[in-house]
Amino acid sequence: MKNTTIIAFVFIIIIILWYASSVYIDNLFPVGTCDYLANRGTYGDKFGAINSLFAGLAFTGIIFTILLQRQELKLQRQELSSTRKVFEIQNEMLSKEKFENTYFQMLNLFHLIVNSLDVKSSDSTENLIKTGRDSFQIFYNEIEKNVNDSIKVGSSNIFSKSKLEEIKESLEVSSYIDAYGMVYDKYKSDLSHYFRTLYHIIKFIDNSEIQTKGHYTSIARAQLSSYEQILLFYNCLHENGNEKFKPLIEKYALFKNIDSSLLFSKTHLKEFDDSAYGHEDIKKKE
């Protein structure tokens, strides 16, 4: 707008000068005087240089106009670029909002599954019922019971508690995986649904284009109790989760805050890569 005003102003000045020069010549050489035509012709020849000057100015004006158009095109490109960035930001926000809506719906479903658990302890004389997350302590205790029973079945000796713990410490991890498998088969209707849902939550994050995947996996990890993490630990060593779930555990450090004191042996920590523990304080022991 400013450049257009300048051009219009210059054009008006040129018109005024042209008209003023015509009036000046008429006054200088009035019509009817002797040889006024010849004098005007001689006088007009003096303006040849001025005509060249005006021609040069006209060419300069053309160049100036081209430069102005170039500047306007540049501004238009900048505006288009800014508009594109705004659209990209809006699209990113919409994608994030859509992702979070689905993600938190999946977490709500996961909570419903956990809260719906209703398990009876098989070794309780009172037939104690555990519900929700408390059920995982029963699963944990039954794994330990299965290991103890396998040791007793394999020997006619009666072991002291310390001796039993010593034998358990020397067992291969496969013995605990088998003990977990027995618990999984017993409570398959509950545990399979639980682990499938948890797996799909982590897989959903992994497959998304969201930039802060670690933030959302840490939220999911925070939903797990200590006993849930232990069951998840042995589930990922079992054939159920070893192929698909275990790599995600290691990728997103889902055992970063695991209570290693609840593991049946600290040597089991070496079954996962260090990345599963987030390279934190937990160290693998041989």
Summarize the structure.
With 286 residues, this protein is mostly helical.
Please give the structural blueprint.
Elements: H1 2-28, H2 36-45, H3 48-115, E1 118-120, E2 129-131, H4 135-153, H5 161-170, H6 173-186, H7 188-207, H8 213-222, H9 226-237, H10 245-251
Give a verbal description of the structure:
The chain is an all-alpha fold and 286 residues long. It has ten helices and two strands. The chain has helices at residues 2-28, 36-45, 48-115, 135-153, 161-170, 173-186, 188-207, 213-222, 226-237, 245-251, and strands at 118-120, 129-131. It has a two-stranded antiparallel ribbon. A hairpin with an 8-residue loop joins strand 1 and strand 2. The longest helix has 68 residues, at 48-115. Mean pLDDT is 80; it is low at 281-286.
